[in-house]
Automatic annotation (TrEMBL):
It comes from Cyanidiococcus yangmingshanensis. NAD(+) binds at residues 250-257, 273, 347. GO terms for biological process: 2-oxoglutarate metabolic process. GO terms for cellular component: mitochondrion; oxoglutarate dehydrogenase complex. Disulfide bonds join 106-111. This is Dihydrolipoyl dehydrogenase 2, chloroplastic.
Length: 550
């Protein structure tokens, strides 16, 4: 919405009908003001002298609008935050409904506190790596120990600090942060309700509305959660105690990361995986190497091809958790495990209950909000609902915090008039912050082979090795590879998979190249600082182009 300061309005005449809805947004990118000569502009306001400086405006006059806001965002996680910041940069009057959960899953119960725990676990693991340190001439005297409560406090204080920064950044840019949850009455009308309330006494409207309500842990039937001995990642992040033996149900990102934390802190881990192999969503070659680096050397065993049909909580230090395993295909009983604790890491489900979206003719798919490629909500007939969007975990396209933020930015670009902007979801990277890390973008090798067969092209594959990298050798972390997949005919980059030190940082080279459409034969001529880990990617790119890396 266009803003006219009082100091300017008195000297400038214009007709409000001159600004239409379309060009109001466009004009808001450049604040309205009085044009001055280049000489005055270069000298700055001090050249005018104290007596001629314009006073700070005390009032702001806005053009009339049929809506309370240009944009309402239901949810204040990473996705809602990213959308709100971009909306303000476009001059849109914006409100964010926190639902009493500013920061969402990522800040409070996900990415941020889990990385704090992983950072502590990584330091502890490094200090306990006697042979690795001795090879570098370092000796650690005495026993390496940790303080559980201090580690927990590190994670909690980080989450609190980031949450405060998030809210401050919104308010600092003029976003209305409303501590209420939103219930949709119409595509452009939202009722504000306090947590636990069934009705609200305030309703607000906006030209556009974005749903960004995130997700919660998914708990399969038959599993009883007590938050003490049987818990989800939400409770695990509190690190209230360290079990001697913990079963982790699920071997995806969440399960792998917590296995890294618990084994570093002294626990034994048993994975329970319904798929025939561990890490079923990972590239096969990477998952095999991950088993060698992350599973085999540690106190970890695994059951694959089984379900945890029933999980009964125990009592810490007194009675064990009872886990009944059945065959994933036949449902025949397999074994009964008794462990100290069980972490349920079987994925996440959308948090869309009570949103009221079904009343707008939307049919949820297992709780997910159906959307098109521009994140516009679809009704039961598959028709886009004007002015209503959904981003992040709630739409299920890619349940990653940075994907939610990217989707939010893309929605704002579109509603602000840039219809040419289109988010390429296949170019969004992902990472698992274990030690060593795993990262990926695009297709797995099997998916790429299937695509090559369907579209009749020859698939290329090239690998860079950590053991051939000077920086990795200097750090004494030479385990890992970077694998690139590409079309041989066009050089199109189809995917990249990395396991090794700082893999989560290295993957962006491929992700950005894919998004920009840079072919492999051009990537091969990019220059990398020596010696850096990025040269591992360079080795893979050059090998793909038939060049030698040094």
């Amino acid at each position: 919405m266009m803003v006219v300061h009082s100091a300017v309005a008195s000297n400038t005449a214009f007709c409000s009908s001159w600004i239409t809805t379309a060009n109001r947004r466009a004009s808001s990118e450049r604040p309205f003001g009085v044009r001055i000569g280049r000489f005055h502009a270069e000298r700055g306001p001090e050249w005018l002298g104290p007596a001629r400086r314009a006073p700070r405006p005390k009032a702001v006059f806005r053009l009339r609008s049929a809506y309370d806001y240009d944009l309402i965002i239901i949810g204040a996680g990473v996705g809602g935050h990213g959308a709100a910041l971009h909306a303000r940069s476009k001059g849109l009057k914006t409100a964010v409904l926190t639902g009493g959960d500013a920061g969402g899953t990522c800040v409070n119960r996900g990415c941020v506190p889990s990385k704090a725990l992983l950072a502590a676990a990584g330091k502890l693991r490094e200090l306990k790596s006697v042979e690795r340190l001795q090879a570098m001439g370092i000796a650690v005297q005495g026993q390496v120990a940790y303080d559980r409560q201090a580690v927990s406090n590190h994670a909690n204080s980080l989450a609190s600090r980031v949450r405060g920064n998030l809210v401050q950044s919104l308010r600092g840019l003029g976003v209305d942060v409303l501590d209420a949850r939103g219930v949709l009455l119409e595509p452009q009308k939202v009722e504000l309700r306090k947590p636990g309330e069934q009705t609200g006494d305030r309703r607000i409207t906006a030209r556009d509305v974005i749903i960004a309500t995130g997700s919660v842990p998914a708990v399969p039937p038959g599993i009883q959660i007590d938050g003490k001995t049987v818990f989800t990642s939400d409770d695990a992040l509190k690190l209230e105690w360290i079990p001697d033996w913990i079963a982790i149900i699920g071997s995806g990102y969440i399960g792998l990361e917590f296995s890294d934390v618990y084994t570093a802190l002294g626990s034994e881990v048993t994975f329970i995986e319904a798929a025939p192999k561990l890490m079923p969503s990972f590239d096969v070659e990477i998952s095999r190497l991950a088993e060698r680096l992350l599973i085999s050397p540690r106190p970890i065993d695994a059951y694959t091809g089984v379900f945890a049909a029933k999980v009964v909580p125990g009592m810490p230090g007194k009675t064990p958790v009872r886990i009944e395993l059945v065959d994933a295909e036949t449902r025949a009983p397999v074994e009964v495990l008794e462990t100290d604790a069980a972490l349920v890491a079987t994925g996440r489900r959308p948090f869309t209950e009570g949103l009221g979206i079904e009343k707008l003719g939307v049919q949820l798919d297992r709780g997910f909000v159906p959307v098109d490629d521009r994140m516009q909500v679809l009704d039961q007939k598959g028709t886009p609902i004007e002015h209503l969007f959904c981003i992040g975990d709630a739409n299920g396209k890619l349940m990653l915090a940075h994907a939610a933020s990217a989707q939010g930015i893309s929605v704002v670009e579109n509603i602000a008039g840039n219809q040419s902007y289109f988010l390429r979801m296949e170019c969004i990277p992902a990472a698992c912050f274990t030690h060593p890390e795993i990262s990926m973008v695009g297709l797995t090798e099997q998916q790429a082979r299937d695509k090559a067969e369907r579209e009749q092209f020859e698939l290329g594959r090239a690998v860079g090795h950590f053991r051939a990298n000077s920086k990795a050798l200097a750090e004494n972390h030479a385990e890992g590879i970077a694998k690139v997949l590409f079309r041989k005919d066009t050089g199109e980059l189809l995917g990249m998979h990395i396991i090794g030190m700082h893999a989560a940082d290295l993957i962006h080279e491929a992700a950005n190249a894919m998004n920009a459409g840079v072919p492999i034969h051009k990537l091969a001529f990019s220059v990398h600082t020596h010696p850096t880990l990025s040269e591992i990617c360079d080795e893979a790119f050059k090998a793909a182009a038939g060049m030698a890396a040094h």
